[in-house]
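User: Before I run my own analysis I want an independent prediction to cross-check against. Here's the chain; please return only the structure tokens and, at the end, one sentence I can use as a sanity check.
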Amino acid sequence: MSINLAIILIFAPSATTLLIHETILLMIHPNGEIMRELIAYAIKNSGKQFQPTGCFIVKGNKIVSRGVSSTQKSHDTTAHAEINAMRKLSKSRKNNNLKGYWIYSTQMPCPMCASAIVWSDAEGIVYGWSGKHGWIDVYFRNFNVRKIINIAKRKKSKIHGPFLQYECMNIRGYGKKLGII
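Assistant: Structure tokens:
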């Protein structure tokens, strides 16, 4: 969901009138359109990943970076979708600060990714599947992304999730495999 805000300034010092019209698009997070686009992106681009995860980084109303998990393909355990998207954006901007940017992920970020998001100073996180009945129960039983964010930061980042969880779980049929859907 986005809100259009039009700013019109009229200045008439003499017989001439100057009219400036600017439209600003304000994005409200979480955004279902962005998450659904991310789900489609993850399905299309994850290949045969064991944990097919997608990530978008959003500034305002624009997707500025995209990533998918590539741990098996790259033989790199740190090649999670969030890390890949942040690396790509940081490299193109020559700046690793993501203040004002939102991280969208089809799964709750793991401790490594949550820590990287803290270090990047991102505005907020929107995640889909909570990882329950899956990786979180296998590796991090009591993990909650809010714990890492809240412990690490003086200024709390905004966290929304699970968001469109069942749609995210169906990226590779997680719901059916886990007997939830």
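Sanity check: Residues 71 and 79 are 5 Å apart (CA to CA).
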